[in-house]
Write a structure and sequence with these properties.
The chain is α/β, with parallel strands linked by helices. Helices cover 34% and strands 15% of the residues. Strands 3-2-1-4 form a four-stranded parallel sheet. The protein has a two-stranded parallel sheet with strand order 5-6. Strand 1, helix 1 and strand 2 form a beta-alpha-beta unit.
């Protein structure tokens, strides 16, 4: 049955991302916030890719509108790069059906001041995210076995960052200074170091150059 002429068309926002998990979460959180603010029906397409092969419902216990999609379904969507996101305000967009793929925030508060309140909503959504029971059990076990009452988390990404974004791989000294400053106030704190320094190249299988972060 077709829609009556006097009915208001359903407004939708459908986005997809082939990037890694953290970038996908940026798309997801900002997409939900935008859809809520604009009265749109939201869907995120979540393909299995080399950057993120895990399904959303395999990671999180949330009834959010995230759907598995094939690479073919994603390829037909327009790709929104940095320029596109900086020039089109999705909060005021007129199109009833918006569909595209991207890799980062749909909100640009530095460009569109009205987006700032939606970033607050993104933070609320992030705080509400819960991992699956199985993953939460592994988190609890790791925390119970390895954590002290106070912890410092340090993420120093290396490997492909050395040639993709070299400047982002030159922060060892500043990270160590921040840890030292925290330890000065909380000398009993533990340090959780997360790094792919010296990782194997996922394409060639060759070990990449190491900085020796664990030793430092």
């Amino acid at each position: 049955m077709g829609r009556r002429m006097d009915e208001t068309p359903i407004r939708t926002l459908t986005v997809a991302s082939t990037a890694g998990l953290c970038n996908r979460l940026r798309v997801l959180l900002s997409g939900i916030a935008l859809a809520e603010a604009t009265g749109r029906q939201f869907t995120m397409l979540w393909p299995h890719t080399e950057a993120c092969s895990a399904a959303f419902d395999g990671l999180f216990a949330l009834p959010w509108p995230v759907c598995v999609a094939s690479a073919e379904e994603i390829e037909v969507l327009e790709h929104w790069d940095q320029h596109k996101r900086q020039t089109l305000d999705l909060l005021t967009a007129d199109s009833a059906d918006i569909r595209f793929q991207t890799w980062s925030w749909l909100l640009v508060p530095s460009r569109f001041p009205a987006h700032r309140a939606l970033m607050v909503r993104c933070a609320q959504l992030l705080a509400s995210m819960q991992p699956t029971v199985e993953i939460q059990a592994r988190i609890n076990a790791f925390r119970d076995n390895s954590f002290r009452p106070q912890m410092i988390g340090v993420h120093l990404r290396r490997a492909d960052m050395r040639f993709l974004y070299p400047l982002s791989a030159t922060n060892t000294d500043s990270a160590m200074a921040a840890v030292d400053a925290y330890l000065h106030c909380s000398p009993d704190a533990g340090v959780l170091l997360c790094t792919d320094d010296g990782a194997v190249n996922q394409h060639s299988g060759q070990t990449l150059a190491t900085e020796g972060l664990h030793t430092k």
